[in-house]
């Protein structure tokens, strides 16, 4: 059997299994192993399974071993732990509380504070789903209690939660860097301006929405005194310190990204105990949550590594590159096609699953056109960010709805989310049309 045919069948089987809600890690490992076994068995032209067993076993175990022993991959549990410990220590909550005190006088100030709180949370941890879940517990119930329209109260947090994908540190950037062999530090820097641009766009959506329909929010709250504002700002200093350690440490040449994550975890733990907001029980719960979340990511990443190796055996990537070259597509047309594929997949699959499923074929195409992989990484992560709030699935929407409960049905969240989706599309167009938005800061990284 032709390897390319086996590759096409493998992709088809993957989509069927994912549609049947088979966990993506098991689908990746199962399909990749079956595809590799079939290719090795037909290597001589006739089906000889006895010759395929050892080769397939070697491919599966060696790729899994190499991935788990990757130094870059150690950043993921560290940054996940950083976010969990910071939450248990009240550091992420302090960011939201500070923004709330400063913005309470403004109509809709809590919604803006929620988005800014999500941005602050994203600057500490790299998970969009964790950001939506955590900030949903903190922000949404309070907005609903004060009389905010449920669409605004939920959509602002669901959209704000996606900032965890772009604002460094980002788990998606780490996984992209591992599979494309690009610089994690440059990717982190490349995501800063697009992330801040997205945050500003979300704030603008809230401001315009309230100006058009003032009944969405209650009357202006009592203004906080200057002393209260300064006290709130002081409460948020640990978050600023942690972000500074990560940014200055990495880009000042003091730490590697992994070392910066480790130092941040230690300092966050020390601050939590010093402020008496973190207990041994809270630390244990944070470690336990980190183990669960990291294990899930590692299993998917291991399956992806095996899948990439199996696809390499099929020769599909070179064949696809040649097919596109023969079609003589312009770079912009190719990029639009890639964006459409990611947006469609984003309606049904989780971000990590989309990334590991598509990168083996998409990256060779992008490289053949001479596109910058750092810039393309930002485009991919932005597309994945959009997928988190795109119906009919929208993982951030489902997470937030589960956290809030009956007060925020999924339909209510989606009813408000389309305004933020429009801003996301505009920011995506700017990133695609003006690569310097992503590359300006990354050029300074080592």
TrEMBL record:
InterPro entries: DctM (IPR010656), TRAP_DctM (IPR004681). It is found in: Cell inner membrane. Residues 11-436 form the TRAP C4-dicarboxylate transport system permease DctM subunit domain. It holds the Pfam family DctM. The keyword GTP-binding does not apply. It is a multi-pass membrane protein. Keywords: Cell inner membrane, Cell membrane, Membrane, Transmembrane, Transmembrane helix, Transport. The chain crosses the membrane at residues 67-87, 108-135, 155-180, 187-210, 241-274, 295-321, 333-366, 373-397, 417-441. NCBIfam families: dctM. Part of the tripartite ATP-independent periplasmic (TRAP) transport system. Belongs to the TRAP transporter large permease family. The complex comprises the extracytoplasmic solute receptor protein and the two transmembrane proteins. This is TRAP transporter large permease protein.
